[in-house]
Automatic annotation (TrEMBL):
Species of provenance: Halovulum marinum
InterPro entries listed in its UniProt record: Endoribo_LPSP/chorism_mut-like (IPR013813), RutC-like_sf (IPR035959)
Signal peptide residue numbers: none
Listed name of the protein: RidA family protein
Superkingdom of origin: Bacteria
Residues annotated as domain Endoribonuclease L-PSP/chorismate mutase-like: 7-137
C-alpha cells in the first residue's frame, strides 16, 4: 500500500527517476544516526544532462527546472536510503545548491528555489529547510546545477 508521500507524489504528477549511480569514487548517500547525507545530484531529465551556463544563454526559469530535476534525484536517493519509504522523512534539514553561473550572474537563490519549492510541495512543513546557493565557474559534465541535501529520518 503506498504511503502518504508516495500518494502526494502521485497527486502532484511526479514520478521519481531511478537513483543515479555515482560518477566517481563516492557513495550516493551516507546514513549517520537519523541523518541522511545525499551526495550532489546533477541536473538531468528524460532528455539527458541539462548543460550550459546560467546567465549566458540559460535563463533563471530554465535553471530552476534544472534545480527541480536535481531535487527529484535527491528524493530518489533519499527513498533508497529510507528503505523505500519516504514517509520516514521527518525533516529536510539543508540543501546546498551550486549554479554554473556566468560572471556577474547574481540570481543563484532564485535558481535553487527549483529544488527548495519541490521539497515544500512534497513534504509540506517538513520540507522547510536551511539552504546555501553558490555560484561556480563550472560544474561536473557541464551541467547547469548541482544540489546536495541533508535529511532527518524518523
Amino acid at each position: 500500500m503506498p504511503g502518504t508521500i508516495d500518494a502526494r507524489l502521485s497527486e502532484l504528477g511526479i514520478t521519481l527517476p531511478d537513483a543515479p549511480a555515482p560518477a566517481a569514487a563516492y557513495v550516493p548517500y551516507v546514513v549517520s544516526g537519523d541523518l541522511v547525507f545525499v551526495s550532489g545530484q546533477i541536473a538531468m531529465d528524460a532528455d539527458g544532462l541539462r548543460t550550459g551556463t546560467v546567465g549566458n544563454g540559460i535563463g533563471v526559469e530554465e535553471a530552476q527546472h534544472s534545480a527541480r530535476c536535481c531535487g527529484l534525484a535527491l528524493l530518489a536517493q533519499l527513498k533508497n536510503a529510507a528503505g523505500g519509504d519516504l514517509d520516514r522523512v521527518a525533516q529536510v534539514v539543508k540543501l546546498t545548491g551550486f549554479v554554473n553561473a556566468a560572471p556577474g550572474f547574481t540570481e543563484h537563490p532564485q535558481v535553487i528555489n527549483g529544488a527548495s519549492l519541490l521539497m515544500a510541495e512534497v513534504f509540506g512543513d517538513k520540507g522547510q529547510h536551511a539552504r546555501a546557493a553558490v555560484g561556480s565557474s563550472s560544474l561536473p559534465r557541464g551541467v547547469q546545477v548541482e544540489v546536495e541535501g541533508i535529511f532527518r529520518l524518523a
